[in-house]
Amino acid sequence: MPRPTTIQHVLEELDMIINESLQTNSRMGLFAYIYRRTTAEIASEIALGNFEDNQRLEILDVAFANLYLDAYKAYKNEQAISMSWAFAFDHAGEPLTILQHIMLGMNAHINLDLAIATASTMSDQDIKTIEGDFNKVNDILFQITNELQDRLSRVSPLLFILDWLGKNKDEQIIDFSMRKAREQSWNSANLLWSLGEDHVENTKTNIDQVVLKLSEYIKAPKSRVIRFFLKLIQKFETKQVSQIISKLKNE
To answer: How many Cα atoms sit within 13 Å of 126 on the Cβ side?
Structure first.
């Protein structure tokens, strides 16, 4: 199957991954569902013409998505992929919380893939000209943070404990992750964009190593208190992927 060239094609491929995950009860489908939800929101905003350069943003969004889709297919075929994606996929079968599984995917995709996609999309152009639309995507993600938090609480009833540990900052777990990751991704994109081709691959590897360290922290936080509560949260979560995604989808 050829790589997607439009956001609609991306959504169709994400649906295929989600359906495959439902059949195999694979938690790889959890990130795929959340990513599909956010991608559909971006597609709606593009259709409404709400970006400074809607065509360019779709090109970026498709390039961004293809890095995840390529990693997923390569992993399935036992081919080499980035360390951070390999870590996320390798631990999909472990008894982590639903949020941890989602965050492992978010970490690899936003902190690594988004930087690469942005730099490559803006090659031979001034990267600063896309900063406004890049930040607008942050605002759109922020708008659906409440929705994502509400949906996750259906399958993870003790998720509120993490907000309590974070001093009750609403949606601080998801929004902090998305917003901080995208801020770091913008910095990394500028770095990759500014380098000559001879140095890009080494820099990508260096970024991947940093992202891997974050993945390791997401899987096993240093705080014993947080690790204890993550195990408690996981104990009371819905376990079947089909039930999780079904409950997340319901309006």
So the answer is: 3
> Tens digit of pLDDT for each residue in 155-193?
988 887 776 665 544 344 444 465 677 788 899 999 999
The label of the residue with tokens 């995950």 reads: 21
pLDDT (tens digit per residue) in 47-75: 999 999 999 999 999 999 999 999 999 99
Is the separation of the CB atoms in 30 and 245 below 8 Å? yes
Please check whether residue 86 is in contact with residue 212, taking contact to mean a CB–CB distance below 8 angstroms. Answer: no
Question: From residue 157, how far is each of 150, 212, 225, 228, 236 by CA, in Å?
Answer: 10, 29, 18, 16, 7
Give the chain's largest Cα–Cα span: 51
- Encoding tokens for residue 185? 């991704």
132-136: long-range contacts (C-beta < 8 A, 24 or more apart)?
132/52, 133/51, 133/52, 133/53, 133/56, 133/57, 134/182, 134/186, 136/45, 136/50, 136/51, 136/52
First-last CA distance in the chain: 32
pTM: 0.90
Letter string b/e over residues 84-105, b meaning 16 or more CB atoms within 10 A of that residue's CB: bbbbbbebbeeebbbbbbbbbb
Question: Cβ distance 163 to 173 under 8 Å?
Answer: yes
- Helices assigned H by DSSP within the chain: 7-24, 28-47, 54-76, 83-90, 98-106, 115-121, 131-143, 145-155, 160-165, 172-194, 197-219, 224-235, 241-249
